[in-house]
Amino acid sequence: MSSSSTLAKRPSSPTDKDDVKKKKNIDAQYALELKLSEHSERPSIGVAGRKISVKTNYLRVRTLPTGSLLHYSFVVVPDAKPPLKTKIFSQLASQGNFGNTCPVFDGNSAIYTCTPLPIGDENDTSNFQISLPAEGRMKEKKFLVTIRKVENIEMEQLMGYLKEKCIMTSQIPTCITILNTVLNYGPRNNYAVVKQGIFPEDPNKKPIILTGGIELKVGFCQSMRPGWDNMLVNVDICAAIFYPAVSLIEFCRQILNKNSVNDLRRGINDYEMRELERAFKGIKIRVTHRGDRRLVIKVERLSSKVADDLYFNNEKEGRDMSVSEYFEKAYNRRLEFKSLPCIMDKKKNYIPFEVCEILNSQRYEKPLSDKAKADMIRKTAMSPQDRFHRIEEGIHHIFNHKDDENLRDFGIEIDQKMMIIEGRVLDTPKVKYARDEFVPQNGRWNLINKIFVRTRALVNWSILVLDQRANNQVKSFAREFKSTLIERGMDVQTDPAIEYGNMQGDFRKEMGMAYAKARLDRNQQVQIIIIIIPKKSSDIYGKIKLISDTELGIPTQCILSERLRKPNNKSCWNNIALKVNAKLGGRNSTLVEGQLDYLTNVKIPTMIMGADISHPGPSQTIQPSIAAVCASIDVNGTTYCGQVSVNEERRNETIEKLEEMATELLQIFSHKNGCLPHRMIFYRDGVSEGQFSGVVKKEVIALKKAFEKLYEQGKTPQLTFIVAQKKHHTRFVPVNRNDADQKGNCRPGTVVDQEIVQKNHFDFFLQSHSGIQGTTRPTHYHVLFDENNFKSDEIQEITYKLCYLYAKSTSAISIVPPIAYAHILAARVRMYPQVMDTNIVSGFQGRGSYSRNNSRRRNDTTEDCGDSDQKTAESGHSDESSNGGVSLPEVQAVLKNAIKQIVNKDNLDDDVVVYYENGLRKVKPYYYEYRTFAKGRWLGRNILDVFSTEFRDRPKEYYAYAIEKGLITVNSKKITAQTIIKNQDLIGHRIHRHEPPVTAEPIKILCVENDYIVINKPSSIPVHPSGRYRHNTVLHILQKEHGFSNLHSLNRLDRLTSGIMILSSKKAKAQEFEQQMKNRKIQKEYICRVEGEFPEGKVICDKPIKIISHKLGLNVVHEDGKPCTTIFERINYNGRTSVVKCKPLTGRTHQIRVHLQYLGHPIANDPLYANSKAWGSELGKGGIGEEKTNVVIENLIKEGFCEDGEMNFDTQKETKDCNVSQTNTEENEITDLQNQNNHAKDSIISDIKFCEECSIAKFSDPLLHQLLIWLHALKYEGDGWKYESELPFWSKDDFDGDIKYV
């Protein structure tokens, strides 16, 4: 597809408020044209499958209020938090201010009644003075309360909507809100509340304590919602974490996992001290040593000394006194735990642990440890029968609807029996392996005697052992696991290299050693590293995946060491084999042909797309929301690619970059299949019902805009947009035990699409999987937009069968695979520490290919521990073309590039102005922050020392000033000069950037085919962003002006060299091209104009060349250099210079230029190798001796040359820009900011102009002849292909521009 068609319909970005408003108006009109609404109409009730009866945790509402309900506002001055407002409202009610009316309060700002409040004001407004008595340390408080009538709410509209007599209006959600406020008002005032749940105290039940001493409480929740033709009440159990209502000493014992509180008498170490301080901070405690005056205080921190050594000035005694002595004297209490520290409140009072108890019903809001999470899942799991019995207890004894005076006052009557409704069990699809086809029983199967559908040869792999306890078992594991892989059909050609590492060591070093060991005596690339770890830990797992994804580019498989110690663990090895085969690019299973005809119809190709957004946790106040989209790119629905982006607005539920992400995925589909999809089913996760309208309108429009970019008018695909919800409280249990599975749950394939859903909405509940423990939760699918005109049975069966196509699971999963993959991808990116800083990622739109088969664990015996969501890839390391997906190295490279984009904020959408003047392409100066991760040699040194020694072109005083002003930062935070640099620190320096101009000559696109883009690169334009160049680079210009992104250059050209460049959007193509170059299967032909009369006939130069200055990128012929050969042939001679054809047989840096210099005919305008002031009159002919190399380097520096042999355009004025060596791109960029800032006014001659913004010296533009050398890449040719450009202007016979060089 040509670039022009790709970008033909790209909407312009809004640049001001008027443009934003205009864009919103256009989108609103678009929404009207598409008839977008909160839901699609239900086409019919499904009939497919076997009918069954199920009990569900819903109650019918028999009667609802009639007539009008009244809404009043409730305003408190001064403002108060909801719990305090509830107290104020309760006091108002207890004082009889509401007469005989029974109002309900929503806990915030609204009062609802069914009869008018006795408000005397003619404006229906009353003011009340309320005083709350002193309590604990809180003094008496007075408030002014204003109650004002807002509106009447007509219940007839809700009844009409339920009976399909009227459409949705704004008052209907308000009616439902009022009904829920009435329903929950009594219970929420009687019990502890967390979000929507209530948690009654049961003194007869033993507390459930999780790892870390925190308490798990199981409570109840209920909500009223529309059903088929009436309102329903959904009742369920819920769970929340609280601080235990115990003594602080006991809580301390639980946190530190001591056998007895007596173990605390000896004191605690520094590590335990930190653990306690982290756990205690923010807890409200009650002191017990002051009799009835039991003050409640909030813990701020712990004292640094223990009670026996903690002294304070006792003014009453007139001397210093320890805390333990004070308690003995003042309270006649000898402290038993005087070797423990004290807690401190805001007033810095010291209070010993043993006189404190934790206040009851305090919610625990800190992140849970991995062990606590596992405990919580295990202890909240209930069989369906136990769960429904518990719900019935809640209905009759906690909610007790029939005796609720608020429900009675509003005229609401609720049936007390849970509903029995009709469900259906869909037919199970037939699963296919290489030699086996079968129908899974209860949604599960095993791998006995099964061969994977497609495998990849495993020729080089290693095992890294990070748990010494597994050292003795690892060799036997390697044998057994290799045998298992072979049994599953894999060609395992070698035994793994085994590296014994240290869990406490540097993970990078350990994984690097495992990689290096596998490469010893083996030429093949390492394909996978198996890592044995001691425990489940998201921290360990995250570090491993960060290194494997962004540094090694090799997949890893984590296994718990305890699995190795279990004998005959064949089941576990089989499940890990699933994961390994998928990560290597294999396909484990598929569905039998004919099972998913809708997807596999090649005449009407279909794309399945899934999307999810990962939001930060409650305690993660600055982290961003990460959006991920995954889409199928094959007709089987088993190969997936993905895109990631970061939302600029935190917790925005809409995917802000969906248009760009969908465009990229559609292009990948087109490249693989030779056509774009005709249909798309888009599954969206993580959207609540209140967000349906906003999400469907914005995201459907985004998808439509993506279609418009790529499709001809009238040929865009038919779109179906479906939201999948897992976070709900609907549960089912079969009435007939024969319809249940072994655990009492419904069988996989159970679907419900009537009675508990709304008649006029196209939605259904589908339980596609078999639960491992507890009560299985169905997924609620809502079809919000449907151009494919699905019948209920069609979309239900497609959705169900897709759940059997999850890559590495021997079971159906609970949600469609593309959503599962998107969830994993977003969660995986969140593991990277760099993504956790909003300032860093705000511009990140890194959208990399993420190849299939991310696995969510469905079986406890499969172990890729940490988060059970693991990433794998369908497409393989070595044979990318065989499956048409994106290779695993490309996946890893994309993630690495994403991190680079995060580091350098390489955002093409910055407000950077490009303009053309005097034949030059210029970029207006812009602010830019250079960023780089800390180098190993920087670790442990302070920031000022690093800058003043590593980047020595500026005085130390400047760096001290930049640090003080916040221009130099660490991890985007202001620091001091003494800040010590640590591993993974991100160093930044913000400057006003002046980018050098380049030629205005456009980049000519010669060909776009077979994933290749061939261009004719003008001279002076560098290929990659580096040093001072960013927007004036080939990659930026191609993306900004032609829409080509994520390109890899297949050949190299110097900045000043023009000619053929070949690029590809696929890393595998670049690697393949590089291999062909190494094997000399590609012929290159250059053309140049050299000094003097070049000899006729073929001239072969095979002299080795060696780099003598990395700083200048300077090479010379040298006997210790690398071997290289170039064939030259003269084309013409004009009496001054010769045009010569060059065929390099090798690819050394500056090879042609150095060989021509050695032959005595350097390129005539080569500023580096034809510089007589540096090389002398002979210009280096025949080579130079060792003694002359330093002289040449010094001469070139004096001439104004700096990095990579570049010459400053005004060498008389700018000579300091070349005194820092650059060893890689990151250091290159960090260093370059010094080069731009080193021209202070007091160090440059007075006639130079300076930038008013940053005081950088502004120099004159380069002349056009300074932007090129007469060297041009004319032709590249391989097996069956050839790319050639036109001849450059300077190669023609009548060219006379060489006169001034002779």
SSE layout:
Layout: H1 3-7, H2 17-34, E1 50-56, E2 58-63, E3 68-77, H3 82-94, E4 104-105, E5 110-113, E6 125-132, E7 141-154, H4 155-162, H5 171-190, E8 192-194, E9 197-199, E10 208-209, E11 215-226, E12 231-242, H6 248-255, H7 270-280, E13 284-287, E14 296-298, E15 301-306, E16 311-314, E17 319-322, H8 323-331, E18 341-344, E19 350-352, E20 356-358, H9 370-380, H10 384-399, H11 405-410, E21 413-414, E22 420-425, E23 431-433, E24 436-438, E25 461-465, H12 474-487, E26 497-500, H13 507-519, E27 528-533, H14 538-552, E28 556-560, H15 561-564, H16 570-583, E29 590-591, H17 597-600, E30 606-614, E31 626-632, E32 640-646, H18 658-673, E33 679-685, H19 692-710, E34 718-725, E35 732-734, E36 750-752, E37 763-767, E38 779-786, H20 792-802, H21 817-830, H22 838-841, E39 855-856, E40 869-870, H23 888-904, E41 914-917, E42 920-923, E43 926-933, H24 943-950, H25 956-964, E44 968-970, E45 973-974, E46 986-993, E47 998-999, E48 1004-1009, E49 1012-1017, H26 1034-1042, E50 1048-1049, E51 1058-1064, H27 1067-1078, E52 1083-1091, E53 1098-1101, ...
Parallel strand pairs: 25-26, 25-27, 27-28, 30-33, 33-34, 51-60
Antiparallel strand pairs: 1-22, 1-35, 2-12, 2-21, 3-5, 3-7, 4-5, 6-7, 8-9, 10-11, 11-12, 13-14, 13-20, 15-18, 16-17, 18-19, 22-36, 23-24, 23-29, 30-31, 31-32, 34-38, 36-37, 37-38, 39-40, 41-42, 42-47, 43-46, 44-45, 44-46, 48-49, 49-51, 50-51, 52-57, 52-60, 53-56, 54-55, 56-57, 58-59, 60-61
